[in-house]
Amino acid sequence: MKTDFKQNLGHWVYSGPDFDPDDYFGFIYLITCSHPEEPKRYIGRKQFHMYRKGKERKVSNWKTYSSSSSHINKMISNLGEEYFTYEILQLFETKGGLSAGEVKVQWDLDVLTEKYPDGTPVFLNRQIGAIKFIPKESVDNETRQRLVGITDDIREEFKEQENRTDAEETAVSEEETDSKEP
Question: Where are the domains of the chain?
Fold first, then answer.
């Protein structure tokens, strides 16, 4: 049964297929401020339900939730809700997946160090996991390129292993066929 969840998502936008929040633990999100003088972003996570020991789960305030970031909430209050978009990036079925997914996206987007040409931060995130400081140094472009090369090498190794495994399966299958023939 296909249901239109648009109005049921509160202020959130989601470009994936329709979903039932009861089937998921939570989601990672992107809040974007489009105010011309304050373009900012924020990556976070939100649970669909609240869990208390010994009690039944309750639906959280996810439909109206803005952020746990006081910076974001202050901007919303000062600039107006009309400048903000709330996007669900990915749904997660488990607490561990949600926590790891948020940290992975935050690291991948360099939320602590990414800056506009004028030197102002792109993201309002002030921590990733337990790291609660903005480092004075960041990974330079040369190292990033090397990391891309390392990732490419690893993917190539995966492909080689898959090809070897496929070739081994084919060889075993051919041996079995040969041994069955009189």
Answer: 7-134, 139-182
